[in-house]
Amino acid sequence: MDWSPNRCSCDFGAPADPLFEVADINFRAVPATGIMVRCPLCGSLFPDRFPMPDSVEAAYDGYYIASAGGRRRGPRRWIGRLMDRSRRDYLTRDLPPYARRVLDFGCGSGAFLIAIEAARPDLALFGTDLGPRPGVGAFRWLAPEAIAEGAPYDWITLGHVLEHHADPRALLNQLAGSLGPGGGLWIATPNAESFLIETAGPWARDIDFPRHREIFTRAGLTRLLEACGLEPSFRSPPRVNAILNTLTTLKNLRIGEAANRGTRARRAVASLFALALHMLSPAAARAGKSPELVLICRKRGDGGPLDAR
């Protein structure tokens, strides 16, 4: 696999602070390792290197974009329905009732678009990703460079996409220019200040080397959005998301070298304790330390029907 140097989107230019060595723990698609560093200006985390464009596909071997997933059965179906009910707004990505044209940028398997298609047959749905998924759902697939063909959009969603993108500033400028009057941009992305990164370090699920190019802080993401003419409004992510993220992190901590077994055990206990505190915290505190940043943006000074949310 070929690599290129990686950098923070704020392009501060000063030497970053090395934190720890990272490996592909989540999917084990890449045997190489890197160094996770922190930007001294915005606080975002990023690996010191990233796969070259012709090597990126290998890093996504077995990733979530492979399929829309199977049906849950038995107790898993009941538990899944209960979890989904507790985070309905998150799963529908706060889709407003007056939106008519929706773009899911980085749609993967198309699961989100397929779900809202069943509930809202009145919508014109568009999706884009690395390649088309023929025969999946009734939405129109657009190449990333061709999203202007479906514009203007009332609602654009990026569900854990921004952290993968080579140039998030250029992407956000492009999407902001594709919004119609009063349109909104929904974003979910990992949080560099989450309690799991603090406690589990390189084993935290959202490190996800080498697929995550940058893990944003709230301040760093706000700075980036404002530079693109967007005003963010942060949401408190669902509690169940933090539980699911912690379970994956504990799985990462369970599988590892015998030499660091004691370290991993201590980090697992610390992660569980931090999760308990997180679950008991008020919404504002949870938003700051949640594994996710969830927010809605609109163009600065823009008015329109979506402002009535």
Give an account of the 3D structure.
The chain has ten helices and twelve strands. The protein has 309 residues and is α/β, with parallel strands linked by helices. The chain has a single domain, classed as Rossmann fold (3-Layer(aba) Sandwich), CATH 3.40.50.150. The strands form three sheets. The protein has a seven-stranded mixed beta sheet, with helices on both faces. Helix 5 links the parallel strand 9 and strand 10. Helix 8 runs antiparallel to helix 9. It is globular.
Which CATH class applies here?
Answer: Alpha Beta
- What's the number of extended β-strand segments? 12
Which percent range describes the beta-strand content? 15-25%
Task: Quote the average pLDDT.
Answer: 90
Structural class by sheet pairing and helices: alpha/beta
Low-confidence regions:
none
CATH topology: Rossmann fold
Tell me the span between the first and last alpha carbons: 47 Å
Largest sheet: 7 strands, mixed
Please name the CATH architecture.
Answer: 3-Layer(aba) Sandwich
Q: Helix tally?
A: 10
Oligomerization category of the chains in this entry? single chain
Q: Rounded to an integer, what's the Rg over CA atoms?
A: 19 Å
Fraction of residues in helix: 25-40%
Gist?
This protein has ten helices and twelve strands. The chain has helices at 56-59, 75-86, 88-91, 111-119, 168-176, 195-200, 218-227, 239-254, 261-280, 283-289, and strands spanning 3-5, 17-23, 33-38, 45-47, 49-51, 101-105, 124-128, 140-141, 153-159, 179-190, 230-235, 292-299.
